[in-house]
Amino acid sequence: MFRLVRHNIKKRIIMYTTMTSSSLAFVLEGLEQVIAFRAKVSVDRKDIISIKWFDEFSDWPSLLVRMPGSYLPRRIMAGSYWNREGWDFVLAKKPKGLRHPTLYNVVVIVTKKPRYKRIIICMDKTKANDIMSWWENK
Q1: H or E element: which one contains 6?
Q2: What does pTM read for this prediction?
């Protein structure tokens, strides 16, 4: 089984989500690929611990260090971020705050992998529900 879903969040963040029976991948395009310093982030289904939707997310364990990534307050937060608990991959529009940013309308995928411990992606709730039901229907 293979599904390809194109996301266009407010006509700014463009990516594809691919779901196979054994893995989930986010494929970035254009400007998002450049500012996130990644073309693709993927995780095997067996490595996923949980997938949750957040209208508002600000659960940062400590100071975040961009390595590599981009952050423009109130514009975009994208790329790899390191903290004491491990690596996060973030792609979010309109973050608020500097030290502990607040993100809106994100799906958070917690994994067993050290890189990336969490994958945090801005998307609409319907797409997030598709991903959550894919994972729950193992």
Answers
A1: strand 2-9
A2: 0.83
For residue 137, give the amino acid letter.
N
The confidence score (pLDDT) of residue 9 equals: 47
Q: Going edge to edge, which strands form the sheet with 13-20?
A: 2-9, 13-20, 23-28, 40-44
Between 118 and 81, the more confident residue is 118
Under a CB-based contact definition with an 8 Å cutoff, are residues 97 and 56 in contact? no
Average pLDDT of the residues of the chain: 83
Q: Where are the domains of the chain?
A: 2-136
Report CA dihedral (68, 63, 77, 53) to the nearest 10 degrees: 120
Q: Distance between CA atoms of 81 and 103, rounded to whole angstroms?
A: 14
Q: Could you report how far apart the first and last alpha carbons of the chain are, in Å?
A: 12
Establish how many alpha carbons lie within 13 A of residue 95's alpha carbon, considering only the half-sphere containing its beta carbon: 22
**Residue 120 to residue 92: CA distance in whole angstroms:** 8
